[in-house]
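Thread: Newbie trying to understand structure tokens

Hi all, I'm a second-year student working on a class project, and my supervisor (Dr. K.) asked me to get a predicted structure for one chain before our next meeting. I've only ever worked with sequences, so writing a 3D structure as a token string is new to me. If someone could post the tokens and maybe explain what I'm looking at, I'd be very grateful. Here's the chain:
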Amino acid sequence: MSQRRELQQHRESLGEIREIMNSMKTLAYMESRKLERYIEAQQAVVTGIETAAADLLHSYPGMLPPASGKPVRAWLVIGSERGFCGDFNQQLLAQLQEQLAGPVAGIADGDAAGDLILVVGQKLQSLLQDDPRLVVAVEGASMAEDLASLLQQLVPHLRELQGAHPGLELRALYHSGKGDVVVKPVLPPFVGLAQTGVLNNIPPLLNLSPPVVLGGLAEHYLFALMFQMLYASLHAENHQRLIHMEGAVKHLDERAAELLRQGNVLRQEEITEEIEVILLNAANLGGCCPEQERLQRQMP
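---
Reply by user tm_fold:
Sure, no problem. This is what the structure looks like when written as tokens:
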């Protein structure tokens, strides 16, 4: 009986865990659907700014600063703040290692020794906390409403790095909406866009000088691009969490079904033992009845 009770208690505990994980799965699904709307709108903003900047650079070439000989490279890696999202952070770590062409943990050789790493998300930070190239680590976002405050924490660090390293090249590593790890150039902005502008013999009519207009576009572009990357990363994180939770819930259901089967087997064994005891007692009682009847007949 005690073993069957232990199985029952274990099954009840698994049921409580399943309810928690199912709630997490539901929240991840709701967050993913909400982020899908944000991503579409934010991508339209980024595309619009890129189109305007490309046309401006095509009409007024030579405004982008020349590339320096060997600029300092910085890598902004957008990981997760929470867990239960599979190998989300491990994929970023593998891509970062590939980009650096050297080991992520420890001192790298060659050009990678001058690289700097900026990390978003505590789970990813825990994987890189011993790396000497890690210069900035900020908390990640758990929901879309947290992204604005996250960006407010991150922007001062980027400005500080730009001031300390003129000509800084910043690239971002993040999960796209499709789940792939994307490497996106961030700084300097608009590199390579001059060749994509619309061919127009009449340049756009500007009320400000072209460099001032380009600088204003660059500021808006960086904020829009950062939001777009953060939205995409958080969406991919919730999508992987949804898949992870579905697998966990399925495993718990299978385990609970197995415990129920084992409990039923034990209950059947207990019932069988009880029946055997009843039959044995009945047989013992049945063996005494003839003798009792003989004694009763002999009595006067």
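A couple of things are worth pointing out once you decode it. The radius of gyration is 34 Å. Residues 90 and 124 are 8 Å apart (CA to CA). Feel free to ask follow-ups in this thread.
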